[in-house]
Amino acid sequence: MNTATIARAWAVTRSDGVTLGFTDHDEAIAFDGITFRPDAGLTARAVVQGLGLSVDNTEAVGLLSDSAITEIDLMAGRWDAADVRLWDVDWSAPQNRRLVFRGHLGEVTRNGGAFRAELRGLSEPLNRAQGRVYHPRCAAELGDKACRFDLGRAGYSVEGTVLEVQEGARFRLSGIVGHESRWFERGSLVVLSGAAEGLTALIKNDTGLSGAGREVELWAGLGIAPQPGDRVKLIAGCDKRAETCRLKFLNFPNFRGFPHLPPEDWLLAPQVVK
């Protein structure tokens, strides 16, 4: 590879399949079906890579561009955990290239019209704790492969319309009937239409109102707040107790906790040996 013609090329792929290419060269470069644009204002910091299982890390710094990575998309979390690939490429002969980094976007910070994105290497998941926790409450997430509960079952999800938004985290909804208060607490709110379409948040409080009204409060506001008239879906919540699994979801055979495990007080109490 000719060192006088080396440029860097980035490919960033979101979870929804949208892929953007960037380069620090002054002209566009194309390979692997991706056009790497020079006008997006994305640059790379030095790549730090270690041998063995150490975590690779680097940063991407750029200017927000309406035609590339927009501030709205960043606030909405659409670039969270996006897949990232970085090549050293000969811009005069793009077939001569070397993949020097692969990972995903970590924390993204914004300041004015610029952003800085942390990049995390493929070995980062090895730092996470592994193994099963023995606890009276369920270790599974509602609807995952361990829980096996079908969230599409009638009565466990419902769609409604936003009537009012308060402080970006409290919503008054219409069109929701047949569910007692707190049914959706610890569940999810999914936005189905509008600028915030596709965003999801956890529900903190859920209160049934007269008629078909409902008031929902989120643990944290969405990056883009739904507006009156937007459609949303509420998904029932689970507090991971054995009683809830048995009575609310009728799913006790798949319960992944240990409800008969002795409490800590019993374990610490002096034992009488007969």
Automatic annotation (TrEMBL):
Q: Which residues form the Bacteriophage phiJL001 Gp84 C-terminal domain?
A: 182-265
One Pfam family matching this protein: Phage_BR0599
Give the top-rank taxon of the lineage listed in the UniProt record for this protein.
Answer: Bacteria
User: Which NCBIfam families does the entry mention?
Assistant: phg_TIGR02218
Q: What is this protein identified as?
A: Putative phage protein (TIGR02218 family)
Q: Which organism is it from?
A: Paracoccus sulfuroxidans
